[in-house]
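Fold this sequence, please.
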Amino acid sequence: MGKKVSNKPNFFRIDANGECGRGLPNITHDASDTPVEGAGRPKGYTAFTDPSGVFTAGVWACDAGTLQIVNLAIDEACYLIEGSVRITDHHGNSDIYRAGEAFLLPRGFSGTWHMPEPIKKYNAMFKR
């Protein structure tokens, strides 16, 4: 006898162009993100949420500008698809990430997120 095949796959596609390629919907910034300059048109979607609601994965995009981040409430892994971002922590440490690069912002991060151009990223977030 062969294995029974489920009609629903047990894996998920994260489409950079939104659910089923329909574009990214407008969203609001997270509570820990405050626009300082520009960055007024965030878009994104959550492609996956685990049953407990602790882990999510999706896509986020925003126009050029700067966000002040205070006490980030999650651990967030990011992979830039488009654009670049300069991240500066509250101690003044700074680095630039470009499309094709990945980085992690740990829970509790405070600093700035500067986008000299529009960006798009895949993200995976873990809420403790």
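Residues 13 and 87 are 28 Å apart (CA to CA). Strands lie at 33-38, 43-49, 55-62, 65-69, 75-82, 84-89, 94-98, 102-105, 111-115, 119-126.
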